[in-house]
Amino acid sequence: MPKILKVKNMNKCIGCFECMIGCASLNFHSHTLTKSAIRVKTKGGLQSQFAAVICVGCSEPACSEACPTQALTPRPGGGVLFDAKKCMGCEKCVPACIVGAIAMDKQTKKPIICKQCGACVQLCPHECLAMEEA
Amino acid sequence: MRITVHVNDYFSRYGVHSGEVELPTGATVADLIKTLGIPPAEIGFVVRSSNILKETQQLHDGDVVLILPFALGG
Amino acid sequence: MLGTDYIRILFVDLSQERVSIEERKDLFHLLGGTGVAAKLLEENMHPELPPLHEEQPIVFAIGPLSTIFPVATKTVATFISPLTGEYGESHAGGRSAMAIRNAGYDAIVITGRAKRPTYLSISDHSVEFKDARGLWGLGVDETGRIIREREGIPGKRSIMRIGVSGENLVSFAGVNVDTYRHFGRLGLGAVFGSKQLKAIAITGETDIPVSNFKEYYATFRWLYKKVVETDLMAKYHEIGTPINIKVLNAISSLPTKNLKQSTFEHADDISGETFAEQTLVRKVSCVGCPIGCIHVGQFRRLFDKGYEYESLAVSYDHELIYALGSLLGTTAASEVLELIDEVEETGLDAMSTGVVLAWATETLERGLISVDQTMVPLEFGNTDGYKKAIHYLAERKNDFYTVLGHGLAKATEVYGGKDFALVYGGNEMAGYHTGYAFALGQTVGARHSHLCNAGYQYDQSAKELNDEEIIDYIIKEEKERCMLTSLVICLFARKVYDRETVLKALNAIGVPFTDADLDKMAEETFFTRLRIKQKLGYSLQNEKFPKRAFETPTRWGKMDEEHMNRLLQMYIQRLQYEYENYSSRE
Description:
The structure holds three protein chains of three kinds.
Chain A: E1 4-7, H1 18-28, E2 39-42, E3 50-53, H2 62-66, E4 72-74, E5 80-82, H3 93-96, E6 103-104, E7 111-112, H4 119-122, E8 129-132
Antiparallel strand pairs in A: 1-8, 2-3, 4-5, 6-7
Chain B: E1 2-7, E2 19-22, H1 29-36, E3 45-48, E4 51-52, E5 64-68
Parallel strand pairs in B: 1-5
Antiparallel strand pairs in B: 1-2, 3-4, 3-5
Chain C: E1 7-13, E2 18-24, H1 33-44, E3 58-61, E4 75-80, E5 87-92, H2 96-103, E6 107-111, E7 118-122, E8 127-131, H3 140-150, E9 157-161, H4 164-167, E10 175-177, E11 181-183, H5 188-194, E12 197-203, H6 213-229, H7 234-237, H8 244-250, H9 272-278, E13 280-284, E14 294-304, E15 308-316, H10 318-323, H11 333-346, H12 350-365, H13 371-374, H14 383-395, H15 399-404, H16 408-415, E16 423-424, E17 427-428, H17 436-444, H18 455-461, H19 467-484, H20 499-508, H21 515-535, H22 548-551, H23 561-585
Parallel strand pairs in C: 1-6, 7-12
Antiparallel strand pairs in C: 1-2, 3-4, 3-6, 4-5, 7-8, 9-10, 9-12, 10-11, 13-14, 14-15, 16-17
Helix pairs in contact in C: 1-21, 6-20, 11-14, 17-18, 17-23, 19-21, 19-23
C-alpha cells in the first residue's frame, strides 16, 4: 500500500527547516521557503515547541471534494493527486483542508499540494517525520 | 601494569569508557590510545597530574590519566 | 541575488523614513557576508564622526549559499563599534539569513536616526517604520513576543531586537536574534539604540527559482549527508561547546575568577556534562542547519513560600559558562543559567558582561573602588550580587556603572586596574587562556575575536611553539575565514566547507568561481577590513597585553611578556610585507 506522511514526534524538532528547504527545491524548483508543502512553525515563539503542518493523507480528502474541476483527485493510499492543468485557482481547497495544509502559491496562483514523496522525511535529522501506511 | 583512565564522554562513541586498563610495562601514551581504540586524530590531550603528556612518554603502574578531546569553538 | 550577477541592497534612512534599492554588479565578486558588508561599511561610514553618530551605518549581508545549503546560516553585520571606536563585525544566525533572503535582498544598509523609538518591518514588498514608543524600555523577550504577534509570516520571519542596555547605549550591548542567537560583541545593540531602532522584523516570500535544479539538488543532498552522517560536526550537537569546560580546566586554560586562576575547583559543577545531565531540555537550530547546536537548559526557581516555582529556559554555550561561570567563580549550573537569563533580558553581551564584572569584583577586593560605587557586594561566586549588577550595568544606574558600560578599556582609564583587565584589542577576553596564539589572535583579529583566526586552536594542537608558524597560521586562517563568512557559513561547519566543497556548492548555483577567485576575494576582504581600521584611526602598534595574562599559567605554562610583544611586532611586520605584496599586485 502506498504510504503517507506522518508526524512522529515534534518534541525532537530542532527547527532546522531542512524539510521545507528540500521540499521547495525538489518539488517546486524554488529557494522560496513558502513554496513548500510541509510548513514548520512554532506553537508560539521559539521557546515553545515546533509544529509541522502537513498533508495528513486523508482517505476521503475534503480538498478534492471541494475542487470543482477535479484538479484534485484521491490518491491510492491517502492524500491527493494534483493536475495543475485542470486547476482554475478558485482556492476552494484551501479552507476545505481542516488541518490547513494547503496554501496558495503567490506566483502560479495555484495550490501547493503535497505529493507524499517523502523527501522531507529523508531530510529530518531527528526522524520527526515518517512515511507509513495509513 | 595497571592504570586508571578518565575518558571524556565524547569518546564513548568508540565504545571507550573510564576505568582501569592493563598495559605492558614501559607502555607509552601512544600504546594506551591504541589499546583503548580511540582514533589518534580525535585525541586532544592526555593529562597526568596536570601535565600534558607526549605520545612517546611512558606510563607507570598506578598512573591516573585523563583523555580529552580538543576544546572546540568557532 | 541568486540567479543574477549582482548584489541587491536595501537602503533604509531612518531620519527621512525613506528607502531605496540598488543592484551592484561590482560587488558580486565579493560573494556576500563579510566581503560585501565590509565594503558597504567603508562606502557608507564617516570616519570623522563618532561611532554613535546618526550618519553612521549598520550593514547586514548574507551570501550566495545562505539557507539553501546546510549550515550556511549566518548574517554578517558591520558597523563602527562604540566599544573600540573602530571596525565592528558580528555574526548571527537564527532565522535572519533566511528572512533576508526571502525578503529579496542580499544586504541591508541602515543610516540616520529615527525621530522616535521605531521598529522596522521589512517584507518582500514593503518597508514600514513602526511606532515603537510602547516597546522602548521593554526586555528582549517581551519585545519579541509583541512584534511576533504583529508582524510577518509565522515560521518565516526574523526579529532582531535590543534590550534596555542597547537603549542606554552600553558599549557592549548586543542585538538578540530570534530568542536564542545574538549579534553579541562590539556593541551593535548600542548602535541600534543610538538610532532609536528598537527592532527589525524581516519576512518575505520572494520568488526565487532554483537554477540548475539537478546539480543544485544533488549537491544539496550530498552536503546534507556530509554534515549529518560524518562526525565533522558531531561535537557541536552532543554536549556542544560546553565540552570545553573540562578540557580547558585539565590543561590550565580555563579563565577563572578574573584569570587569577586557569583551573577552577568547581569546574565539574559547571561542566558541559553537568549542564547536559541536570538542565538540558532541548536543542534548537538556526534555519538551514540540521545539527542543532543551540543547547537550551531549564531550571526552576522558588520565588515564594508554598512551592511557588517559576521555570526558565535559557540557551547556554561555552563562552557563557566561562564568562558568567568560571570567570565569576559561579559554583552551580543553575546559577550560571540565572545569570545568562539576566544578561539575555537586558540585551547585554554575555562575554563582555562577565569580564567587566570579574574586573569590578577584583577592583573592589583591592579597594580601588568601594561598595558605595558597586551598590552590591561583588564577590566571586555571589550570584545574587551579580544578578543585580547586571541590571545596574544595563540601566547605567550610577556613575560607576555608567563608566563600566563604556567597556573595560575605558573603565580602567578612570579607575585603574589595567593590569588585571582582561582586554585584548579593546575587546573583553574570550574563554580560552591557551597561550600566545590565542592572545595574539584576539588582539590582531579584525573584529578582535578568537573567531577571527582561531589562535586557540593552534595553541592546543601545536606540538611545540614556533613563532613563524603562529604568524603563518593566524594570517592564513583569518584570510580563509574572510571567504567562509562571505558565503555565509557558520564557522562550526568550517571542516565541512573545504575548498572543494565550497566550489562545488557555488558552481551548483551558477556562480562560476575558481579557487583563485576565492583567494582573490579573501585577500581583498582581508585588506579592506584593515584599511577601514586604519581610516578609523586604529593601529596595532598601540596594542598592549594585560599583565594578568602573564601571571597565570596557560597550557604552555606562564607566557612571557617580552615574547608576546615580540610576536606582535613580528605580526605587524608580516602584515606590512603582505600589504606591500598585495598592493603591488593590484
